[in-house]
Amino acid sequence: MPRVTPDPDLPDRLADLVLPAADGTDVRLGALWAQQPRVLVHLRHFGCLFCREHVIQLRERADRIRALGADLAAIGTGDRSYAADFRDAQGIDFPLLVDEALASYGAAGAQRGSLRTFLRPRQWVDGARALLSGVGNGRPGKQPFMLGATHVLTPQGRVPFAWINEDFGDNAPIDAVVATLEEEQRGHTAA
User: Which domain holds residue 86?
Assistant: First the structure.
């Protein structure tokens, strides 16, 4: 299973990275979780069928995530213009950042897939499921073999949830992310 032991040094490695956002601003990553927990999702690329499906799932659960005192942000491997088009097409209302140099991907422990990864039978099953749900592919980015990751980062510098994708369609289950945020909220209110 791709859920991994959270790396306690991850917030420090990511905090000072500055990435361009689809809205034209530049964002220091540490500012994203300075005031509230943040679900930080590393997407593969903006044309990825599985990333588009994942963003729909995130968008559908965004109100619940926000009700738990957290917010979302996503990072992809395209340019700012492609990110803006993706944001608008997907109806994203949370920060969408671009990391063409893959600095945040490396810091987060995201892996690279290969043609062998693409040829796994599970990829074809996952791809068929995504296509049947109405999600389509877009044009690939410059990093079509980059895999994704999902982390929850807190203002206290903790990482209560970490998921490193093993293949292209292996995104973190949103219910597991929400359950982590619910647990965080219970712990916060008990303190």
Answer: 10-190
